[in-house]
Design brief:
Elements: E1 10-14, H1 20-32, E2 37-41, H2 48-57, E3 65-71, H3 76-82, E4 88-93, H4 101-108, E5 117-118, H5 124-136, H6 140-170
Parallel strand pairs: 1-2, 1-3, 3-4, 4-5
The structure holds 5-O-phosphono-beta-D-ribofuranose.
Amino acid sequence: MKKRKAHPRVAILMGSDSDWDVMAAAAKRLAEFEVLHEIKVTSAHRSPGETAEYASSARRQGLEVIIAGAGAAAHLAGVVAAHTTLPVIGVPLDATSLKGLDSLLSTVQMPPGVPVATVGVGAADNAALLALQILAVGDDGIARRLDRFKKDLARQVATKNERLQARLQRG
Ligand code: RP5
């Protein structure tokens, strides 16, 4: 049987290499779940043609979800969403004196018909988890791993509760 060539399932896009320190968390989470991804700097404002071309061909390239992080007047996720029917997850980044409020509003306030699933300011890890949950709709392996991840989260909360209860009892 011919083996299918492995291709990236998720794209992590960002407006500048200065966004990488925050966006790296998305790559780390996808790597932990062994999901192939590609990482690219492309800008809605500074390289609009390349961004549109990338988004337009993303589905053809075999990508399934696109994560796009940008700061300031952050239009990267929105422009990508305008050029593809793939799900787009926007990560607003804190890059100006407005501390991310500017990029949050630019990313989340999309016009009707062109949705961007926007996570919190700087929440690249959550963006990756949402991408994994989207892939898990048709991928039992990822769904099982996400299940274990959620059980682990609940265990961590239980430990925090035990710690607090012990502290309260000590007075
Ligand atoms: C945005 O402007 C980028 O996404 C970045 O967050 C911010 C600053 O970019 P650089 O001036 O560091 O390239 O477009």
